[in-house]
Design brief:
alpha+beta, four-stranded mixed sheet, elongated
Length: 114
């Protein structure tokens, strides 16, 4: 992810001022959940939900990302397993907070309202 962060910041710095909102940078946040192939490596890295019966289902991975509105480049992203309450997309976004600067506007869907 280091290359993504570095490249994203370089590209975003060259973005057009016409996409600023009242002179402020706009950062888009969103996330998703994906199922992964049922391999031992994926089961180890992204274990089943706590209530899932062993041998049923697929490993689940949460992904959260931050995009620059002015350039469309991904600034940072995080991935994590699905263990239950408190480890979803909002928790992943908290690991990315250093990407935001003073005065940045964060735009997300209703899921990020809290």
């Amino acid at each position: 992810m280091g290359m993504v962060r570095h490249t994203g910041r370089l590209i975003c710095a060259e973005g057009s001022d016409t996409w600023l909102w009242r002179g402020r940078l706009v950062r888009l946040v969103d996330g998703t959940t994906v199922t992964l192939p049922d391999t031992q490596a994926n089961q180890t890295a992204y274990p089943q939900k706590r209530g899932q019966k062993p041998g049923l289902g697929f490993p689940i991975c949460h992904i959260a990302g931050v995009t620059c509105l002015s350039s469309g480049v991904v600034l940072d992203a995080a991935m994590g397993g699905f263990k239950g309450k408190g480890d979803g997309q909002q928790a992943l976004l908290r690991t990315l907070l250093d990407i935001f600067g003073f005065g940045d506007v964060i735009l997300g869907d209703a899921f990020y309202g809290t």
